[in-house]
UniProtKB/TrEMBL annotation:
<dbReference type="InterPro" id="IPR000866">
    <property type="entry name" value="AhpC/TSA"/>
</dbReference>
<keyword id="KW-0575">Peroxidase</keyword>
<dbReference type="GO" id="GO:0045454">
    <property type="term" value="P:cell redox homeostasis"/>
</dbReference>
<comment type="similarity">
    <text>Belongs to the peroxiredoxin family. BCP/PrxQ subfamily.</text>
</comment>
<keyword id="KW-1015">Disulfide bond</keyword>
<keyword id="KW-0049">Antioxidant</keyword>
<dbReference type="InterPro" id="IPR050924">
    <property type="entry name" value="Peroxiredoxin_BCP/PrxQ"/>
</dbReference>
<dbReference type="InterPro" id="IPR013766">
    <property type="entry name" value="Thioredoxin_domain"/>
</dbReference>
<dbReference type="Pfam" id="PF00578">
    <property type="entry name" value="AhpC-TSA"/>
</dbReference>
<feature type="domain" description="Thioredoxin">
    <location>
        <begin position="2"/>
        <end position="144"/>
    </location>
</feature>
<dbReference type="GO" id="GO:0005737">
    <property type="term" value="C:cytoplasm"/>
</dbReference>
<keyword id="KW-0676">Redox-active center</keyword>
<dbReference type="InterPro" id="IPR036249">
    <property type="entry name" value="Thioredoxin-like_sf"/>
</dbReference>
<protein>
    <recommendedName>
        <fullName>thioredoxin-dependent peroxiredoxin</fullName>
        <ecNumber>1.11.1.24</ecNumber>
    </recommendedName>
</protein>
<keyword id="KW-0560">Oxidoreductase</keyword>
<dbReference type="GO" id="GO:0008379">
    <property type="term" value="F:thioredoxin peroxidase activity"/>
</dbReference>
<dbReference type="GO" id="GO:0034599">
    <property type="term" value="P:cellular response to oxidative stress"/>
</dbReference>
Amino acid sequence: MLESGDPAPEITATNQYGEEITPTFEEPTVVYFYPKDFTGGCTIEANDFQDVLPQYREAGITVYGISMDDVDSHAEFADEEGILFDLLADPDGAVAEAFGLDTAEGHTDRRTFVLANGEIFATYNPELADPAGHAREVLNDTRNEFITGG
C-alpha cells in the first residue's frame, strides 16, 4: 500500500456521470476507497463526506470516493444518497491496485489517502473505527496542514 511520501499514482476512472476523470493530485485531494455501494458502513461514510463537502470545497480540497462497483451502480448510489462529489468506478481494480490495495476478493477495504503536490501526504485506515466522523477527521487534518500551514 502506498504510504506518506510516495509519489501519487497516475489514474483515470469514470465517475457516476459517465465522465472520465484524471486527477493530477497537485492540489489537496482526498481519495477514499470503500467496499461497495449501498452497504451499511459505506453508506454512512459517503454521507459523512457529503455532510462536510461544503467545508472541503471551501478549503479547496477535492474528494473522490472509489469502489469496484460500476458506473451504473455509482449513479444509482449517488442519486439515492444525494452524493455530489465524484464516485469513481474501478470495476477491474486498476485504480485500487495503483494505490497498492488488495482487490482479490472483488472489493477493497476502506482506506483513505490524502494527496497533494503529486505525492501521498497521509493515509487512514477507517476500518479500525466507526465510519461516522471519519470525513471530519480527514478534513480537519488536511485543512490544518495545507490551509493553515500545519
